[in-house]
Design the sequence.
C-alpha cells in the first residue's frame, strides 16, 4: 500500500512545536510529508525551538520554497490525503479564506479545498478580532477545519509536551490516521 501523502505548512504564528511534532508523528505513522515553511515560520521556529530552515526541512520527505508555485503540491492532480498548517498565522488564514494563492502555502491550501480534501488550520492568535472570526467562518464554509490548539485539561496533563501531543494526535485523527492516539473522554 502506498504511503499517504500529507502537506504540512508552518507559518510565523507562535506554536512551531505543533508543526515539528506533527512532522515527527507523521514520519512514525509512515506518511510521506511535503513541507512548506514561510520565512516568518523559519524565524519563529528558530526563536521558539532553536531550529533553522535546514533542520525543519530534515523532518519532511520533501520540502519546497514558499515561492515555488510550480511545485507538485500546487496542482489538484497531485494526490494527497490532506493538509495541515501548524501553526497557522492570521495572515495565512486570511489568504486561505480569500483564495489568494499568492504563494505555495496558500495555493496548496486552496488546492486541498477545491479537491475536497481535508484541510486543518491550527490557528494561533488571541484574542480574535472580527476579521479573524469571519475568515475562520469562510474557511469552515469551504470545508476546512479550524483547529485552534486549545489544550484539554480533563486528562490532567503533566507537561507542555503532553498538551502538544494531545492536540497533534487529535489532528492526526481528523486526517484519518488509524495510528493516532488522542486521549478520549471516558465520562465521570
Sequence:
Amino acid at each position: 500500500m502506498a504511503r499517504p501523502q500529507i502537506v504540512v505548512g508552518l507559518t510565523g504564528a507562535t506554536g512551531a512545536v505543533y508543526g515539528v511534532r506533527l512532522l515527527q508523528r507523521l514520519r512514525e505513522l509512515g506518511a510521506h510529508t511535503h513541507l512548506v515553511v514561510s520565512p516568518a515560520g523559519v524565524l519563529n521556529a528558530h526563536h521558539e525551538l532553536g531550529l533553522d530552515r535546514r533542520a525543519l526541512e530534515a523532518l519532511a520527505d520533501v520540502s519546497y520554497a514558499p515561492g515555488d508555485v510550480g511545485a507538485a503540491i500546487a496542482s489538484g492532480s497531485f494526490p494527497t490525503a490532506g493538509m495541515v498548517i501548524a501553526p497557522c498565522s492570521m495572515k495565512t488564514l486570511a489568504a486561505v479564506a480569500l483564495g489568494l494563492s499568492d504563494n505555495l502555502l496558500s495555493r496548496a491550501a486552496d488546492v486541498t479545498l477545491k479537491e475536497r480534501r481535508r484541510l486543518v488550520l491550527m490557528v494561533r492568535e488571541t484574542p480574535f478580532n472580527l476579521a479573524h472570526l469571519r475568515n475562520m467562518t469562510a474557511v469552515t464554509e469551504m470545508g476546512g477545519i479550524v483547529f485552534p490548539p486549545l489544550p484539554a485539561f480533563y486528562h490532567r496533563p503533566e507537561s507542555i509536551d503532553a498538551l502538544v501531543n494531545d492536540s497533534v494526535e487529535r489532528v492526526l485523527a481528523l486526517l484519518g490516521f488509524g495510528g493516532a492516539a488522542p486521549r478520549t473522554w471516558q465520562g465521570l
Remarks:
- Residues 7 and 142 are 18 Å apart (CA to CA).
- The chain has one domain: 5-174.
- The first strand starts at residue 5 and ends at 10.
- DSSP finds seven helices and six strands in the chain.
